[in-house]
Amino acid sequence: MANIVAIVGRPNVGKSTLFNRLTESRKAIVDDFSGVTRDRHYEVAEWIGKKFTVIDTGGFVYGSDDVFEEAIREQVHIAIEEASVILFMVDVTTGITDLDDEIADLLRRTPKPVYVVANKVDHAKRTHESAEFYAFGLGEVYNVSSITGSGTGELLDDVVSHF
Ligand code: GDP
Ligand code: MG
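^ thats the input. predicted complex w/ magnesium ion below
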């Protein structure tokens, strides 16, 4: 069975930034040697010798700045159908929004593993602020900074334990 990790979350939480970080070395290789046009929303990544495909689901449904409930639903359905592991990304600098709650409601219905990823924890002091995300009832909150890479190793260690 394919190892697929889908990143879901409302716009601007940092999904694409994490996607690019996780797939960056692979992209460089593909760009250098094949010249093949890549699908920006699916890329292969590797961690401790385990290969998996990462999906940046936001790109499927956000054609404009308008985000409808239906688009959120579709994004999460894609993840639930296609992924083996789901990363639910939220933003520590904004805290929980109505859209976050909407997505959390949908994700609570899947038996697949869901990881709550609190992004933009760029400084240690923000670690405490992410505690509010435990309210989703989706288990452990992983603090990461997709920009600096902080915390992404701990997250990936647990994610690839499913592969
Ligand atoms: P997406 O809409 O969920 O794909 O979010 P993007 O990846 O496009 O990021 C939205 C904005 O958040 C951009 O301005 C990013 O530079 C910023 N961003 C992403 N990750 C981080 C992070 O770890 N820390 C901070 N401070 N900003 C971030
Ligand atoms: Mg994006």
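The CA atoms of residues 123 and 145 lie 9 Å apart.
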